Predict the structure.
Amino acid sequence: MSRPPSPRTRDDWQALAEGLSLEGRAFIGDVFVDAASGDTFESRNPATGEILARVASCDEPDAERAVAAAREAFAGGEWSRLAPGKRKKVLLRLADLMEANKHELALIDTLDMGKPVSSSLGDMAGAIGCIRYQAECIDKLYGEVAPTGEETLALVLREPIGVVAAIVPWNFPLMMTAWKIAPALAAGNSVILKPSEKSPLSALRLASLAREAGLPRGVFQVLPGFGHTVGKALALSMQVDCLAFTGSTQVGKQLMQYAGQSNLKRVYLECGGKSPNLVFADCKDLDRVASHAAAAIFHNQGEVCIAGSRLLVENAIRAEFVDKVVEAAKAMQPGDPLDPGSFMGAMVDETQYRRVLDYIAKGREEGARLRAGGQALESPGLFIPPTIFDGVTPAMAIGREEIFGPVLSVFGFDTEEEAIAMANDTPYGLAAGLWSQDIDRIMRVTRRLQSGQVFVNNWAGGDQTMPFGGVKQSGNGRDKSHHSLEEYSELKSVWMSLTL
């Protein structure tokens, strides 16, 4: 049976959208069910205001039921004690199903969250690649035999933790989901996913694909709802062994407190950022660098944890370079998310839309020089164009606080030491960029930037082989690469006496 042709135009995507059937119920055990309370919330398309679905609003009773099913599944061993090679086959089947349904999954994220469908397709490639990478890793990780004398045998075994609760954000709904669940499932854990209430629909579609792939009952479950209800219940549960979270630093701190109040569950956090992007005067192709600097903040409407929101430019080239960034931003205007040619889409919801506009107003009030954008588009949807402020200082709110929108703050510097000090003058440390042709400078500055990731002469480079995460108040967890498997595994030391 042949597959339908791939959608190529806005009309193709619109036709596919009209045929969608969206699931809004929770996935507990291995069935879709209403929340115990019967409560629901609306999922809306931020580009049009259209109601997409009414989604189950889960709370503590639903969390208790899901945790019990997860614990039963883990104890039963159908997945947790399954040979790694066999777990790999199931996860590869899931990746294949995601590949076969990638257009539907991408469309769901676009409708639910507002991002351009071309970006959502890129997210799907990342999500599928993550599932496949972690599946292939799991039967290639060995335990250890410690060096001892002949009278003993000492083993270091790697075992699954138990029940993992994953709380993921709304900006990359399915890709962030894959980054959390792939290593956790590959390691043999039972996983309960709490998607953001702002973009829960692709996670629910993923649940049906996971069931089709052959994941046993209770091994993967999805609880839509709010952080202060079902999210809090999972964080406080005495039967959840590990909590993996991507989101704001404020919420990350609350989750660590909940872990301390309950069972000291492991907590892995990937939190906020206010990432510096340093441009030195020795760069050769300023047009190319300016285009990348603009994309670093305006991609995904600026709703990106590693967005290059602080642009630090050597004063010798600052005026010329900022002009080039402004020019590059002209080609990055928001448009219909279903149009494959749109670079930016709509802000995720009214709350985030108002938050970004408030920061733009603050930038004006604080005396920063507005070079581009600054006003919402006249449209039924929630669209804000690329906005650029020059002459920003570290004392300004737009220069120090995470906005999570298409707002770029430009700073100037004269010396390398000044640039490093300014880059590190933040509570965050998720990402940093460095543009220079001087290899000595690159090595010096890279080592001194307080960041979990440094991108040299690029922004957001990397693949599944590279760990993703931050330092300072950007968190302590690592997604991607084989290092993420360490977060979802326990080490057990076994010391055997070979003589009596």
